[in-house]
Amino acid sequence: MASIRDLVGAIRQREGVEAAVILGRDGLLIDSQVVPGLDAEDLAARIPGIIGPADDLGAAAARGELLTAVLEHRTGLAVISVLSPDAVLFVLVRPEANVGQLLFELRRNREQIAALV
């Protein structure tokens, strides 16, 4: 069976992926692989501040809790995927990356990925 480190490594090896970070819902880093110059712990610490308001929006809009968020920034995309009540996957990708395929695979394999964490 694959490990968390295997999962992070496989995601990070995808073309265009600059960071793959697994974190707890509290923002504490579990595992990561990032390009030089990025601070995985700093990135992980910022994610809970996004998830909470997104969950509130989902409740107000009768859509439920956040599962996946895609944030488009000037020089790339940030993908947040809530794997379980305890774990989150955060992925940074360059604009030219095939984010559609990544999102499809994360959605299709969410339960298997969550089982690794």
Task: Name the features.
single chain; 117 residues; alpha+beta; Beta-Lactamase; five-stranded antiparallel beta sheet; 5 helices
Q: Please tell me the CATH architecture by its name.
A: 2-Layer Sandwich
What number of domains? 1
In the sheet with the most strands, the strands line up as: 2-1-5-4-3
What is the string of SSEs from the N terminus onward? HEEHHEEEHH
Radius of gyration, in Å, reads: 13 Å
CATH fold title: Beta-Lactamase
Low-confidence stretches: none
- State the name of the first-level CATH class: Alpha Beta
Number of strands: 5
Backbone shape: globular
Q: On the 0-100 scale, what is the average pLDDT?
A: 93
How can the largest sheet be summarized? 5 strands, antiparallel
Strand content: 25-35%
Number of helices: 5
Q: Kindly name the structural category.
A: alpha+beta
Tell me the distance between the termini: 12 Å
- The percent range for helix content is 25-40%
What is the CATH superfamily classification? Dynein light chain 2a, cytoplasmic
